[in-house]
Amino acid sequence: MSSTAGPGTHVVVVGAGMVAHRFVESMLSRGDAGWRITLIGEEDRHPYDRVGLTGFFDGSSADDLTLDRTNIDDPRVRFVRGDAVARIDRSARRVTTRSGLSVAYDRLVLATGSYAARLAVEGFGLDGCFVYRTLDDVEKLKAFVEHRTRELGRPLTGTVIGGGLLGLEAAGALQGLDVSCTVVQSSDRLMSAQLDLSGGNALRRLIESRGIRVRTDTVTTRLDPDRTGQVAGLEFRDGAYERTDVVVFTVGVRPRDELARGADLAVHPRGGILIDASCQTSDPRILAIGEVANFDGACVGLVAPGYAMAEVAATRLLGGDASFPGYDLSTKLKLSGVDVASFGDAFATTPGALDVVYADPVAGVYKKLVLSDDAKTLLGGILVGDASAYGSLRPLVGGALGGDPAAYLMPEGGVAAPTGDLPDEALVCSCNSVTAGAIRGAVHDEGCTDVAAVKACTKAGAACGSCVMMVKKIVGSELAKSGATLSSALCEHFDMSRRQLFDAVRVSQLTTFSAVIERFGAGRGCDICKPALASILSTLVGKHVLDGENATLQDTNDHVMANLQKDGSYSVVPRIPGGEVTPEGLLAIGQVAQDYNLYTKITGGQRIDLFGARLEQLPEIWKRLVDAGFESGHAYGKSLRTVKSCVGSTWCRYGVQDSVGMAVQLELRYRGLRSPHKIKLGVSGCARECAEARGKDVGVIATEAGWNMYVGGNGGFTPRHAVLLAEGLSDAELLTAIDRFLMYYIFTADRLQRTAPWFEDLDGGIDGLRAVIFDDTLGICDDLDAAIATHIEGYEDEWKATIEDPEKLRRFASFVNAPMTPDPALAYTVERGQPRPATEAERLGGVMIAGTTLEVRR
Description:
This protein is α/β, with parallel strands linked by helices. The protein is globular.
């Protein structure tokens, strides 16, 4: 019997997760064939990004995680949420939900996913035990931690049972809630499904360096309660005992195949609905996709295979020919500051496979490539501590590596990353199963001329985004072959790139946005070009960010010179050059924080952040800080943020140079320097590197011979280590080199491009950069020197100028008709002795702080 969905066909989808969402999207994208879709989801939510759950603990809301609702809201789709299917009647072709809703189907798609397993040990159901699977799970976990912390009056200790991919993400989430965390793993290494023993050991060092304890070869045998029934401790098989306040189980998932079993569909003995390559079950009218589907004896809890199944099922239902190719088990850990990836035949199970390994235990780096027996074909790999090559290597699996394998692994390797010369069958986007050939087809057959168009056409880069740079290179290569070029337009209002626009403004000497867009652009501008041009004008013209038209161009943060927080209040960050501050300065900051009831925190950049300031309070706060000798720290701008330093030779017995003095000099030299993205510097007084300079855009490390200068380091989504630019520089030589590096970056980088990808895209890479800065190969060093001199000479503290200008102060008002009235939407509670934004539940009752007045709401 054909499983094709012809005109008038009613397709019922059971399950409303990411894979079901992709299936619906795929069906709708093929045109209107007269069929209808009913989507039934157990959760009372729209489909959301379960892969990004950890972002919930970094401030992402449920709405932020919700997937595109366009397809779910399509008139051809009926979405039933908050109601689970309880029974399938195959003979009547009908499903019945728990609420009694009965829905007939012509074709049924089971996308019920899986559920989180718990250890079958005594005490697994105690209060304080959680799984980490759904939004409800993480919301309950967060609420419990916040409530229990207040109840006990101290930070909690937590335990994650299971050291796989999800377990490490859960540990990072707990740590983000100030829970002291231990990961317990029964096997001999973390991420044992993806990493070999050496890779697991390297990962363990990285995880422990973040302050998360790890216990391997440890089996939990019992969970013990306290007198109130809360979980209080764990007992292990070796007799050890560990106290804990919260437990998270991440010991794997089990397919939710109970509906299939009840309907007598063929199910694998170890779980999962049996499917063939067309995703068809033992009933020709029923398909199964995602984690509930068992193909070739396995169910896999990754989204990429589920997406591939969704595409196959949709293609089959609409009369096309498609087959599921099997599981791609490539994974990448989503944990801030820990870079891990595994792909292909990572364990070298292919007969005759060879390993090429690079390990640096001190730096926490382990890299392994698995090659065919002739050392020519890439079979797989493991990357720990530095997974920057993942996007380039992953598409090459199954193809020729094309160079010395060791060069891909060594720091600052000599082999360039593969670009548009990938074979058509190379998988570029593993999340959405998009090959290099599909991307080329989008360019040549569909007329896609930029990454955004290719993403919309093929879904490449639409999930985790790690392949976007590879997509961009392929698109650029294909356009070049056809005689066209990849569009570098800043936005729809400017055909120029940021670099071209910078040069145009510099040559034309125009000083306002209206003049620039009239001459070089079209329309009224947007939230892309306005802030970009504001940054350019700040560099070339140097006016105050709130002067004239400039004030209308800024992002939200620059608009009021403060960082907007999630509750609508703002942060205040005074500059503390080099982290050096006098006792009088500390007292002044402390008094301001106390008087305005602000939350205070020492940052990783050696500054003090004050959170919870209301809009109308900002000028008052800043006047007091300016009077105490402080100035804006520019935490809100795309500009210099901080120059971090150790104490250097001033105090440290190992220091060989005055790192604090140099850091202060650099921070005062580059303060207020607007740029395409934020800039961070670091200065270490010796090779022990306590200031973490190699993680900064510019890193300076002292030696007996002078200063070594590193460039291109950054954290963020794609962490990079800075690379050595020059050695043994004197103070004057160092300043000149940094001057030219920063100004060359500001002159030529794309919008929102960090220094790391910027210099990698330069002709000649790091060698080309050296030639520009030290040999003046482009003949622009005089211009760069003049530009930095103009900046230094024209610098003024933005907040000092603002509090002296009544016109600028008018924008700092909560309400037009009541400038000093506090925003009534702001509400706080006390945690660890400091105010923090109240949750919705806390707003309904209990002790709250509104503004600076303590009040009790009943």
